[in-house]
């Protein structure tokens, strides 16, 4: 994973605080894969944002949005329950917006999940989207934004975890 050269003064990467932002569902991957990934990136000297950097008392959503705006590359770790979290989905919408506006790279990481489930919102992703719809807290526009973000991210070139999670960290 090569970052932009710091010698290019007009490059937007130079203005970013974080090299990498990791988006993930904590309950699924925090204690295993994501922590290994974060450690591996740290060993290679990438300044990585992960949500446990948020301090007690901080405004969580505001801190996340600031970190997203201050990041160059995004690793979105799609796992079994990623779509069950409205936080993850809202975060993904923001990440995809940054990607569409240019200047950032988004790399999907499919952790023990079929990429087509994310792309087409089937399997656990379809179930999660139906649950969000039934809860009634989310309007049609938000639901469509989530679906579009999932599809767009899943269509990007990324990594699929058919191997051991520790080895996958080295591939990334």
TrEMBL record:
Keywords: NAD. Coiled coil: none annotated. Residues 16-154 form the TIR domain. The keyword Nucleus does not apply. InterPro entries: TIR_dom, Toll_tir_struct_dom_sf. It comes from the Eukaryota. Pfam families: TIR. One of its GO terms (biological process) is signal transduction. PANTHER family: TIR DOMAIN-CONTAINING PROTEIN, TMV RESISTANCE PROTEIN N-LIKE. This is TIR-NBS-LRR resistance protein. It comes from Trifolium medium.
């Amino acid at each position: 994973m090569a970052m932009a050269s710091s010698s290019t003064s007009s490059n937007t990467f130079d203005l970013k605080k974080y090299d990498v932002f990791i988006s993930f569902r904590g309950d699924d991957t925090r204690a295993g894969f994501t922590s290994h990934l974060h450690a591996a990136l740290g060993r290679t000297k990438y300044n990585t944002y992960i949500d446990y950097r948020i301090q007690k008392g901080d405004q969580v959503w505001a801190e996340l949005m600031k970190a997203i705006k201050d990041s160059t590359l995004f690793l979105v770790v799609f796992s079994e329950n990623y779509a069950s979290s409205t936080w993850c989905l809202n975060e993904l919408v923001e990440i995809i917006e940054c990607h569409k506006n240019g200047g950032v790279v988004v790399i999907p990481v499919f952790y023990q999940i079929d990429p087509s489930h994310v792309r087409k919102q089937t399997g656990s992703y379809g179930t999660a989207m139906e649950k969000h719809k039934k809860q009634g807290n989310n309007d049609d526009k938000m639901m469509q934004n989530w679906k579009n973000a999932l599809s767009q991210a899943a269509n990007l070139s990324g990594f699929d975890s058919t191997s051991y999670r520790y080895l996958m960290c080295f591939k990334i």
